[in-house]
Amino acid sequence: MEIFSRFVGSMKIKSNSTKPSKHGGKRRSNPSIHNDETEDIFTSSEENKQPDRHNYSRPHFLNLSEQEEKASRDHNSRPIIVPNDSSRIPLQAGYAECINGGKSQNNEDQAAVGSFILSHHPNGLVDSTRKMDIIEVQYFAIFDGHAGVGAALMAADQLINHLQEKLAEIQEDLFNLHMKEATQFNPKEVGRTSSLVTLDSLVRGALEAAFMSFDEHIGVERKSFNISGGCAAIVTLILLGRVYVAHAGDCRAVAYVEEEVIELASEFTPETDAERIQYLAHICPSLTHDAFSENYFLTHPNKKDIGNKVLCRGPLRAGWFYKVVTEEDVYRPPIIAGQGKWARLMGVIGVARGFGDHGLVVSGSKIKVKPFLSPIPEVRVFNLMDYKFGEDDVIVMGCDGLWDMLKNDQVGSTLKSSLAKSREENITDKYRKAAEDLVLLARGDNTGKGWKMKDGKEASFDDISCFVIPLQRCLNKSLKCYAQ
């Protein structure tokens, strides 16, 4: 039927299994549960009966009809959704998504794209003979929601506005520093910027400030609206011959250039972000009401360990040491427990950074988790001018529903095969097809006994979202001059 032109995969298979797999059941929509694979209970500090801040929908660039959007929520077939018109996405990048296998009513992932310009009039003069310089900016974002869709929906709608505002504040400096790079001018001759301030540090600062101000925006808006849950966030920003990837959560971005694999963002978990969390607990013990230990143990000690030495990592320390176990170590839970995808912050949540979660508290207490959930992203820079790109060189940006199932090299081999096949079959939207193939591989097939990958291993039970961004097309977006 024509209505399913954007959907890929069977719509007929019925599932007999509603139980999440070990790898798949990352988050649940039940507002009393806020976790990854385990069912750690939490409660909100206030019962929210306000109207929703945003009505639920899929990403606007998909342009789904009401009937198509309804069909996209089929948990039994989990159709893969791709944009019908790739021109709605900057650089005609590829995108694909599918809903989870039944852990929440809606797809809690959201995605957003955008293009905008920063303008500059040399010397501040404008007349009919002057030229205006502009910087073109391309924006891609994925927001992986948990415990509801509210924070992810608001991020998809509003984060780009905060980012434009922060970039506009530094645009004069960006032009000056770009001129300095291009002409090797003395810093004193290019405006107000110091030699200590670089173009990269300015864009990093704008991204960090935008993430912080948006999270504060959620905090203000939730006083009047229901903005459920929280979300991990990953943003790719392309300007001035560079790619900036800002990441707060458990998503990932990887560049594939010929045979080289370059991680541009890797997952933040309570375990990988332990130093920051332990340091905050150490300097501000009142935030935990002295209910949690600031020490991090590989395995939480028990009564039998009292008086014995076990491996421990303390606050302000990067390494491990042997600590004599005390009663306090046994009876005060560590602020971080578990390892890998099983690591938990305060026994409540398996992420360490992201947006929202302002009402999240430890079960049975008034201890707020939010001070330890940071919206500040890590920002990495990929200089496009250091490479010569071919058509198969791309950035893959996806949520953990993709990366929990696929290793970097699996994604790379799938990309290579998909792009080669698209050339053979003269498929024009090859990056869309590549994104579709990646989501299909991570989703697997419904066997009636759960979702399985081709090798028989358990497939993702989670929502899956993925961009494939062609690097060759990024080089066309730089500083330009336009006559007034």
Low-pLDDT regions: 1-47, 187-191, 479-484
Briefly note the structural class of the backbone. alpha+beta
End-to-end gap: 49 Å
Radius of gyration: 24 Å
The whole-number mean of residue pLDDT values reads: 84
Describe the sheet with the most strands.
7 strands, antiparallel
Question: How much of the polypeptide forms β-strand, as a percent range?
Answer: 15-25%
Estimated helix fraction: 10-25%
Number of helices: 9
Shape: globular
Give the total of beta strands.
Answer: 23
Short description:
This protein has 484 residues and is α+β, with helices and mostly antiparallel strands. 24% of the residues lie in helices and 24% in strands.
List keywords for this structure.
7-stranded antiparallel sheet; globular; disordered C terminus
Description:
- The structure is a single chain.
- This protein has 9 helices and 23 strands.
- Strands 5, 6, 7, 8, 16, 18 and 23 form a 7-stranded antiparallel sheet that branches.
- Helix 2 packs antiparallel against helix 3 and helix 7 (408-424) packs across helix 8 (430-443).
- The longest helix is centred in the middle third of the chain and has 34 residues, at 150-183.
- It is globular and about 70 Å long.
- It has 484 residues and is of the alpha+beta class.
- It has helices at 66-71, 150-183, 199-221, 274-283, 327-331, 400-403, 408-424, 430-443, 471-474; strands spanning 7-8, 42-44, 80-81, 94-98, 109-120, 131-146, 230-239, 242-248, 252-257, 260-265, 296-297, 309-313, 321-324, 336-337, 344-345, 355-356, 360-362, 378-383, 394-398, 445-446, 451-452, 464-470, 479-483.
- Helices cover 24% and strands 24% of the residues.
